[in-house]
Write a structure and sequence with these properties.
InterPro entries: Aminotransferase_I/II_large (IPR004839), DapC_beta/gammaproteobac (IPR019878), LL-DAP_aminotransferase (IPR050881), PyrdxlP-dep_Trfase (IPR015424), PyrdxlP-dep_Trfase_major (IPR015421), PyrdxlP-dep_Trfase_small (IPR015422). The chain is an alpha/beta fold and 404 residues long. Helix content is 39%, strand content 15%. The chain is globular, with a radius of gyration of 21 Å.
Length: 404
């Protein structure tokens, strides 16, 4: 067996299942889950219809590089969304079966396991980053998010001796679970580090279309273009961006996304995926073309999230330290003033009010002396507004009962 498998920790939801194993929730309340970040808004009918209309594609073996129509649609969306110059659909984009499997596979592509490599990851983080590092023969190096920096990571705190071993840096902007968005200055610093130490940046942007202000989050390719890195001899050098339709278009079951950026990295990634078996179903490709070409449903989806967050966040602020995030559909709340740890809070809330939240410590690791998720909870506001409001009312009552 692969010995690196023994380094993997249980997934956060398995830890949550164990935490709740001996708990019987209060039967007076119906179950409401804010634990998993799975979109619950309806899938737009036109995407469903595009899938049905192209069901005959199941009779055809797909190519790993995907159809010209899909690659063109992805390039068109990137150019419109981020104001980019024309991308080459043959070399700068590649369809993938959701960003999750692509994030994992990229590590297998770019890491030299004989080099005692390090993979930099934010902390807290999406657990795929850690697993991808271990199974590629590398070690993760965690950089804690800092509430004083709007949950940004202090990459300047990483010593040169660490950077010299880094081959891959994972980041998530907007962040999971914090919702934090990197600034142009942040990107400029990271691009300079990537050039100096020759590591690949894997920018996970699957939450980019759920934002709460008027200004859309800055993207990695957009930042590179603004800094003049789209027109150099090797455009977007060492930068690969990941995006997905799951959150943008409410189609998590379709498993459709893309990677885009450095053509030299993507050439090797395509070679890896050809052997890995990462081709997307032609039927899903056709439905994806329809989704990437339409913004009306995305705007409606975003409006629904904005209204939901505007209604729920003030309620929860009565009893815990929580603020509207830059983007994403999570609330990252500090429950310290309740007197309970994050795991105690989640367990008792489930037992007494049948509401599920995810302990923040399950999303992070002990690094540099602290677990930055400790005494925090993640709440995914993915259900319809009324169900979310009911969950918030129960949480407020639970917290008020604690203070009595």
């Amino acid at each position: 067996m692969n010995p690196h498998l023994d380094k993997l920790q249980p997934y956060p939801f398995e830890k949550l299942r164990q935490l709740f194993a001996q708990v019987k929730p209060n039967p007076d309340y119906s179950a409401i889950s804010l634990g998993m970040g799975e979109p619950k808004h309806p899938t737009p009918p036109f995407i469903q219809q595009a899938l049905v209309d192209n069901i005959s594609g199941l009779a055809t073996y797909p190519t790993t590089i995907g159809s010209e129509a899909l690659r063109g649609a992805i390039c068109g969306w990137l150019e419109r969304r981020y104001g980019l110059p024309a991308l080459n659909p043959a070399t700068q984009v590649l369809p993938v079966n959701g960003s999750r499997e692509a994030l994992f596979a990229l590590a297998q592509t770019v890491i030299d396991p004989a080099a005692k490599a390090l993979v930099v990851s934010p902390n807290p983080f999406y657990q795929i980053y850690e697993g991808a590092a271990y199974l590629a023969g590398a070690e993760p190096y965690f950089v804690n998010s800092d509430p004083a920096r709007n949950f940004g990571c202090d990459y300047d705190s990483i010593p040169a001796s660490v950077w010299e071993r880094v081959q891959l840096l994972f980041l998530c902007s907007p962040g999971n679970p914090t919702g934090a968005v990197l600034s142009l200055t942040d990107w400029e610093n990271l691009f300079a580090l990537s050039e100096r130490y020759n590591f690949v940046i894997a920018a996970d942007e699957c939450y980019s279309e759920t934002y709460h202000g008027e200004e859309a989050p800055l993207g990695a390719l957009q930042a590179a273009h603004m800094l003049g890195l789209s027109t150099v001899e090797r455009p977007y050098a060492r930068l690969v961006v990941f995006s997905s339709l799951s959150k943008r278009s409410n189609v998590p079951g379709m498993r459709s996304g893309f990677v885009a950026g450095d053509a030299e990295v993507l050439k090797k990634f395509l070679l890896y995926r050809t052997y890995h078996g990462g081709a997307m179903s032609p039927s899903v490709q056709a439905a994806s073309v329809a989704a990437w070409n339409d913004e009306t449903h995305v705007e409606a989806n975003r409006t629904q999230y904005r209204a939901k967050f505007a209604a729920i966040t003030p309620l929860l602020q009565q009893v815990m330290d929580v603020a509207l995030p830059d983007a994403g559909f999570y609330l990252w709340a500090d429950v310290s003033r309740t007197g309970l740890s994050d795991t105690e809070f989640a367990q008792r809330l489930y037992a007494e009010y049948n509401v599920t939240v995810l302990p923040g410590s399950y999303l992070a690791r002990e690094a540099h002396g602290i677990n930055p998720g400790r005494n925090r909870i993640r709440m995914a506001l993915v259900a319809e507004t009324e169900e979310g409001l009911e969950a918030a009312r129960r949480i407020v009552q639970f917290c008020k009962n604690l203070s009595k």
